[in-house]
Write a structure and sequence with these properties.
- The protein is globular and about 65 Å long.
- By secondary structure, it is α/β, with parallel strands linked by helices.
- The strands form 2 sheets. The chain has a 6-stranded parallel β-sheet, with helices on both faces. It has a 3-stranded mixed β-sheet with strand order 7-8-9.
- The protein is built from 14 helices and 9 strands.
- Helix 9 packs across helix 11 and helix 9 crosses helix 12.
- It starts with a strand and ends with a helix.
- It folds into 2 domains: about 160 residues, Rossmann fold, CATH 3.40.50.720; about 120 residues, N-(1-d-carboxylethyl)-l-norvaline Dehydrogenase, domain 2.
Length: about 290
């Protein structure tokens, strides 16, 4: 069992840190809203601290899960950041969905201090975090990954090293690119079924057993048909992720015409007040004439 720190107790980080504690790891937590850290510490018999540096002091493993590149820098770098409190030989695991450039920046900063760094974005949403069934895509050195993997498996059902620093973030970009197209296609199919006068629930019951099957279809078609979107992975977060994908595509020359289009559809959802709606809310653009 390791002495660990978890920085960032949002909808994902809060249960992820809980799984670490449940496995027997000694966990110190930091959150920008201190009351949430105190509540977590009371629930899980952990320790809430005032700064990322204080959380990281003495920890063998430090996990971060915050909002974006700038948020990661704010909790990792600087005099009160996690790296300032970490000792040589410790490992930083960043679960934030961020840019590959940031992952390489952190890896370089860690190397200067003898600290291993892994970029390890996750997929599976809030339900996956709560149930300990996340997919974790990791970039970094194999020896560092092997040391951190048992702890990551506290909440990861599939934990895989994808390559050097940045490879985890690049893999997460592929994940989000694929999801964007899938959700738009699902929305169009659902709307078509309804307008064709079919029993859309029966339609998805049968086609989900064939080549059209996907996680999005099985887990979102019921709520999409009901027009319910006040849950799940927020449109604001998806647009942040797709922006990272489109920026990276500008650098590597990849063509993402569908992704760019779906990103604009999500912009329309935001304009209609759906910033916190689940990504399946693409359906509302087709049903709200």
């Amino acid at each position: 069992m390791a002495k660990a720190a978890f920085i960032g107790l949002g909808v994902m980080g809060y249960p992820m840190a809980g799984h670490l504690a449940a496995r027997g790891h000694e966990v110190a937590v930091y959150n920008r809203t201190a009351a949430k850290a105190e509540r977590w510490a009371a629930e899980h018999k952990g320790r809430a601290v005032a700064t990322p540096r204080a959380a990281a002091e003495g920890a063998e493993l430090v996990f971060t899960c915050v909002g974006n590149d700038d948020d990661v820098r704010s909790v990792v770098l600087g005099k009160d950041g996690a790296l300032a409190g970490m000792r040589s030989g410790a490992i930083l695991v960043d679960h934030t969905t961020a840019s590959a450039g940031l992952a390489r920046e952190l890896a370089a900063a860690g190397k200067e201090k003898g600290i291993g760094v892994l970029d390890a974005p996750v997929s599976g949403g809030e339900a996956g975090a709560k149930n300990g069934k996340l997919t974790v895509m990791v970039g970094g050195e194999a020896a560092i990954f092997d040391r951190a993997k048992p702890a990551i498996e506290s909440y990861g059902v599939a934990v895989m090293l994808m390559g050097p620093a940045g490879a985890g973030q690049l893999t997460k970009m592929v994940n989000q690119i694929c999801i964007a197209g899938l959700v738009q296609a699902l929305a169009e199919g659902a709307n078509f079924a309804q307008r064709a006068g079919l029993d859309a629930h029966k339609v998805f019951e049968v086609i989900s057993k064939g080549a059209a099957q996907s996680w999005q279809m099985e887990n979102r078609h019921v709520t999409m048909l009901a027009g319910k979107y006040d849950f799940g992975f927020a449109v604001d977060w998806m647009r942040k992720d797709l922006g990272i994908c489109l920026d990276e595509a500008d650098r590597n020359g990849a063509r993402l015409p569908v992704t760019a289009l779906v990103d604009q559809f999500y912009k329309n959802v935001q304009a209609r007040g759906g910033r916190r709606y689940d990504t399946s809310s693409l359906m509302m653009l087709l049903t709200n004439d």
